Amino acid sequence: MFVIDKAIKILKKGGLVAFPTETVYGLGADAKNPKALKKIFAAKGRPIDHPLIVHIAETAALSDWACDIPEEAWILANAFWPGPLTLILKKAPGVPDLVTGGQDTIGLRVPNHPVALELLKKFGSGLAAPSANRFGRVSPTTAQAVVEELGERVGLVLDGGSCNVGVESTILDLSGPEVTILRPGMITSSQIETLLNKPVRTFKKNAPRVSGALESHYAPQTKVQIVSTQELQQFNDPSMVIVARSKGSFKNQIFMPADPEAYAHVLYQTLRELDKKNFKEIIIEEIPEKAEWDAIRDRLKKMAVKNSRV
Ligand code: TXA
Ligand code: MG
User: Fold this and answer.
1) Which spans in 104-233 are helix H?
2) Residue 106 exposure: Cα atoms within 13 Å on the Cβ side
3) Nearest residue to 149 via CA among 48, 43, 255
4) Mean pLDDT throughout 183-202?
């Protein structure tokens, strides 16, 4: 595939290539090249101390990047990789500080997308890749969205269609005594608990080093409010748009799917399109309190935080 070869050339020279994963598009750079890594932070406008996830082609490469790897990491990798799970482990010596934000841990995952896997295999090493959006904004789930976010800042965008999962990976910290979810994703804590046969903590407080855990993140430019099903009617105003699973007779409504996988798949693209339409507010119907909605609830809350200060 010619375009993959072109991507490899750019990456080997220390350039940036955006590529599709099953979650969202990533902005990739050679994880061993500090000059290339610096370009990621510049392109995103991201603070330099926020660590990056390193994408690898296969589970066996874990030991190139991490050390003191617990048995649980191999069990999880065998069960969920390639897939939307990032493992935080003790970093191996020689991993650039820019990847880890100067911490002694590293985030690693094998993405489940044929283009990403081909790219990683041909590249032959790890690619650091945050979501390919400007810092704090909605992650891109199509190649077109990457271009809208980053334009000339990225050398090449590999088009792999729209991302299946649609929200970012579950981040699981295995570097300490307890197993902790730092960012919920579509692989849920109960799936992990069942597999490991032990309790999994969920990290609640803000951790500045986990940018997705900042109070405000993943935010469209339009103000977002989350309201209950009963309250929706109060926002039935031509200047607003209602994003809801339940049917109503609203002036502007986007119908959302009733199951969490389908909802996650369309969420970011829906918001991205609504952002272009200059509504005064985007009103999102609250979602079920069930665990399979955790990742979506997390993202919706963070979008609404920024906007409630406007
Ligand atoms: O699905 C995903 O994870 C996407 C695709 C492209 O793989 N990537 C992604 O990257 O969401 P990013 O940089 O937008 O979010 C990664 C999160 C950040 O919040 C970062 O702080 C956290 O992972 N992270 C990375 N390494 C870490 C570490 N060593 N310790 C704690 N958090 C870490
Ligand atoms: Mg991100």
Assistant:
1) 114-123, 143-150, 189-196
2) 30
3) 43
4) 96
Task: Report the pLDDT value the prediction gives residue 216, as an integer from 0 to 100.
Answer: 63
Kindly give the pairing relationship between strand 26-30 and strand 127-128: antiparallel
Residue 209 has pLDDT above 60, yes or no: no
Q: Which residues surround ligand 2, an ion (CB under 5 A)?
A: 131
Mutate to test the pocket of ligand 1, among 109, 171, 206 (most ligand atoms within 8 A of CB): 171
How many CA atoms lie less than 13 Å away from 197 in the CB half-sphere? 2
Q: How confident is the model at residue 305 (pLDDT cuts 50, 70, 90)?
A: confident
DSSP 64-101: HHEES--HHHHHHHHHH-SSSEEEEEEEPTT--HHHHT
Question: Do the beta carbons of residue 272 and residue 166 sit within 8 Å?
Answer: no
Beta strands 26-30; 17-19: pairing state: antiparallel
Do 184 and 170 form a contact (C-beta atoms < 8 A)?
Answer: yes
Using a 10 angstrom Cβ sphere, with 0-12 exposed, 13-18 middle and 19 or more buried, the burial of residue 230 is exposed
pLDDT at 122 over 80: yes
Integer Cα distance of 64 and 86 in angstroms: 16
Cα 170 to ligand 1 centroid, rounded to whole Å: 9
Residue entry with tokens 């991507």: 7
Residue whose Cα lies nearest atom 7 of ligand 1: it is 26
Least trusted range by pLDDT, from 125-129, 247-251, 277-281, 303-307? 303-307
Closest CA to 296 of 233, 194, 226, 240: 226
CA angle 25, 26, 29 (to 5 degrees): 155
